[in-house]
Amino acid sequence: MIDLKNKGLLHGGDYNPEQWLDRPDILAEDIRMMKKAGVNVVTLGVFSWSVLEPREGEYHFDWLQDIMDRLWENGIHTILATPSGAKPVWLDETYPEALRMDEWGRVRHHGVRHNHCPSSPAYRKKVEEMDTRLAEQFGNHPGLLLWHISNELGGSCYCPLCQKRFQTYLEKKFDGDIEKLNHAWWTTFWSHQYQRFDQVEPPFANGETSIMGLNLEWKRFTTWNMTDYMKSEIQTLRRLTPKIPVTTNFMKLYPGLDYRMMAKELDVISWDSYPRYHNDYESLYDTCMENAFDHAVMRGMSKGRPFLLMESVPGAVNWHAFNKMKRPRMHKLAALQAVACGSDSVQYFQWRKSRGSFEQYHGAVVDHLGRDDTRIFLETQETGEMLKKLERVSHSLVKPKAAVLFDWDNRWAIQDMKGLSQEKKQYEQTCMTMYRLLAELGVEAEIVSRDDSLEAYAFVAAPMLYLLGDGTAGRLADYVDKGGHLLATYLTGYVDKDTLCWLGGFPGDGLTELFGLYSEEIDSLYPGDKNYVKFDDESIGEVRDFAELLRVKDAEILGTFTEDYIKGLPAVTRKQRGTGAAWYVGARLDDASLKGLLEKICREAGLSADPLPSNVERHVREDDRFRYTFYLNYGSAPAAVKASGTNLLTGAQAEAKAVIPPMDGAVFAKSI
Ligand code: GLA
Ligand code: ZN
Question: What residues does the Glycoside hydrolase family 42 N-terminal domain cover (predicted)?
């Protein structure tokens, strides 16, 4: 367990005192207000490079030392960021190789942020020099809690340095044999065979974008290269400050990098959450459940440790299509949700609004108004008080018994496949729906990837597992053989790790045997097309978007299609293997009937499905002695829930039931 020194939960956020060095009055006021708001941590140094090193080799750290000292004197920890998220102008001037090249082959001009070439030796060297000095100066600071590598690493670079690294990477991957690459990528199609690795270009937007294997491998390479870059920063810090853990802040389900790969290199997983609360296209509950899924993805990567909510906004952001204010109580509820899902922190971007430039209208705890009695400030303060009451929950864990398999390689492959209905593929939403429906049944799910061990779960839902990497199918079969319940859906097992189609029937690589069926065709439905599944209990489910023509060999048929030429053909099946079972649903079902199916599976898997009232979310964290049950009510009416123990937020005792007021939450502690 990484010791984050704190005994309770962290509360704070990004703080940019370098923007206010000529205003000591404001800096002093900040500390006073932080204490008032119950802030015990701030993140310093994100984007501070041009103040830390205004000219090459000229370092100015005094201001940082001073502010860190003063924060610490006031009981506030520091998460110290390396400043590599944005480059000072002198760096791009002196080392133009650090500038990124885009997918059209255009070299970027200096400016903005998150735009360095991760391969550039000059950039890596400059960052190393900076990180070394930061670690030397602040590594032993008693207030230093955690290193924050760069900021929201992302994007990809197509420059000659990156191209070269890509080619070397491919050469290694394909054992120096270009014919292996040609076969894996099926390059005979459209005469795209390569003769040498140095002929392989990245998939430039105006170049080779038609080879699915290349597109996928470029994404994997981009992850590998960005991770390699991140590791270079981590290495410097670990060498000099082995006791200080490292993190970097992830962005939700950012599609550009496989976070699972990056997570392996980090001590602590942290992420930035900015849901579109109170929008006009879904219920608040749905918005929050998407956020719960994102939290679960982070938790899944944390491997038995709490994660951190590194950024969220107390008010409104400035980059949504509509930058809507968080309505009263939303902020506290969102903070409670983070902790309920397994976060040991609630942090913000940002403490104080910048006076000018790009984010001057982005929400913050302290507005341009500068007051500590604003609606937002007061709710932040209340959040601080709430987190204090929940202190003992820190270090406890959420331990789900079910899992949803969500995989980056798979989403990339699905996104890029040419077929079906592009806009209806919705892989991410499909995984979220599984997660949400399970949650409504009272079943907490972990989010796992195809390489994770499945041992801890009685039930695994693996929707749309289009790509089967090496060993994936074997692992799934093994899971069922050992008594697990596995649910697969339409679009399972179509391609291998390089996106070559499996021959001899989908789902491939032996899974036709596991499920006792094969899929002969897949239909894309127009929104106006209608089909239904009739289950053996006579219930009817609606089919949307996709339906497969299944040929069943030795599975039990649980539901059949009711319309069109597939009328009477199997749609939902189950094959028993020992005490486990492999379930298959060959169509996208409406929520209610999918939920019915999930309930049946959970029951068979021995998971006590205990459905929640509508608009209510529940999570359970546990430590050695206590179970902490969190309830959140997003509805407009009070909700009656099952509860026993002490409500840590109010001190009230619950015997068997409790009522959660609208837009409120509760946390019941009960000894195990
Ligand atoms: C990201 C960044 C922050 C800030 C916020 C705005 O999370 O890390 O620097 O730009 O977005 O929402
Ligand atoms: Zn590059």
Answer: 14-390
